[in-house]
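sry for the spam today, last one i promise. struct tokens for design, 410 residues
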């Protein structure tokens, strides 16, 4: 049985190398992983400009005791190149407009009094050279790295890419993920509640997680507990998907057919079982395909908390790695326990919890029902508290590692 850290490292290795890249319009690139370094083709900004409305002046024209009276000659507005500033004069200028040649600063308009065509600047308002001026190349010099390959593009990244004049960018292809739930008891939510059946809800959450991780998802019909039917369904799904996620049937019961069915269709199991709670019976495999990238299999337990937590920490990390994401697994946060949480040593526990801001930092409270079948506390939780495998629990006031659900699942 693998420790958490080893299992995660092996799963991330299966995501390399990243999938192929494709060009997309910048407007469609939000949430995608950049497949190239973006560099600035020219200086950003491309010219000196004013950071506010006011008057462009030469500081050397403001020597002496003041106040200073300068005739106003012309104006500089956005989208136009102004005339040069004559010595001993000032020019009306607007936010974003180019600094006229000869000027070296801008006096904000609130500090200037107009007397007809003359601007009066008090001695106390005298600016220093460069005041209220955004310099050419201040953000990026020509040739400098703007956004690194492997960055998952947020809205501000799109703005920066547009600012360096990119209309499209190269991003890594979305992984195609097929979801296949197994079990005689499953039915679609909202259908006839036949005695002995349950509405299958796991794939709703798992597909949403995968989409937030940048994947394209497909849901296959449920597979009954029949070996031949299971093998046929697996073979068909593996032919079309980059990743096959199975839900349920990965343990050791008489009707747990997933592992033998996967092996029967040619899947090589990389490992089975991880020393975590919940979610120990996790299956990871590889399916070779002629002339194409191997498909990866992620076999999840059927209990809702087990399925969602194992996919959040392992499945999402795999999908991010396949896209070349330079941060496939989030950093641990630190928070202080508000109350004790008991733990049976032997496996790393990922306990469902809620975090809050306290005066001294973040505090965290584990939820009461930690059963692997409890979807209620999964819906309530916004964090997972990491209780080490050797520990007997955590006490109130202890500082612990925390994984935020927003970081894991977007």
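last one done:
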């Amino acid at each position: 049985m693998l420790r958490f850290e080893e299992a995660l490292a092996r799963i991330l290795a299966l995501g390399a190398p990243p999938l192929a890249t494709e060009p997309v319009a910048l407007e469609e690139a939000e949430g995608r992983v950049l497949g190239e370094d973006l560099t600035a083709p020219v200086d950003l900004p491309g010219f000196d400009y004013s950071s506010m409305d006011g008057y462009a002046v030469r500081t050397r024209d403001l020597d002496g005791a003041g106040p200073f009276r300068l005739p106003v000659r012309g104006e500089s507005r956005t989208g136009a190149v102004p005339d040069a500033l004559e010595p001993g004069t000032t020019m009306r200028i607007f936010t974003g407009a180019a600094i006229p040649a000869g000027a070296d600063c801008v006096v904000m308009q609130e500090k200037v009094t107009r007397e007809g065509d003359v601007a009066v600047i008090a001695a106390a308002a005298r600016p220093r050279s460069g005041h209220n001026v955004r310099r050419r190349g201040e953000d990026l010099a020509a040739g400098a790295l703007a956004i690194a390959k492997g960055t998952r593009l947020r809205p501000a990244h799109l703005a920066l890419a547009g600012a360096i004049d990119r209309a499209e960018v190269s991003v890594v292809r979305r992984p195609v993920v097929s979801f296949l739930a197994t079990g005689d008891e499953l039915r679609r939510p909202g259908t006839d509640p036949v005695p002995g059946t349950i509405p299958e809800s796991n794939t709703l959450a798992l597909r949403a997680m995968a989409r937030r991780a940048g994947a394209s998802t497909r849901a296959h019909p449920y597979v009954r507990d029949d070996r031949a039917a299971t093998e046929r369904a697996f073979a068909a799904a593996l032919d079309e998907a980059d990743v096959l996620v199975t839900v349920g049937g990965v343990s050791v019961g008489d009707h747990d057919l997933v592992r033998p069915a996967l092996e029967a269709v040619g899947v090589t199991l990389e490992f089975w079982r991880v020393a975590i709670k919940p979610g120990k019976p996790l299956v990871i495999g590889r399916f070779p395909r002629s002339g194409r990238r191997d498909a990866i299999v992620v076999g999840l337990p059927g209990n809702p908390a087990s399925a969602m937590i194992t996919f959040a920490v392992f499945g999402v990390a795999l999908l991010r790695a396949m896209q070349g994401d330079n941060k496939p697994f989030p950093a641990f946060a630190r928070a202080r326990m508000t109350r004790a949480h008991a733990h049976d040593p032997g496996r790393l526990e990922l306990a469902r919890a809620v975090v809050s801001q306290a005066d001294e930092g973040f505090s965290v409270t584990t939820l009461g029902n930690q059963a692997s079948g409890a979807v209620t506390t999964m819906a309530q939780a916004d964090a997972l508290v990491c209780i080490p495998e050797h520990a007997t629990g955590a006490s109130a006031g202890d500082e612990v590692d925390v994984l935020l659900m927003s970081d894991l699942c977007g």
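Residues 100 and 259 are 73 Å apart (CA to CA). ok im logging off now
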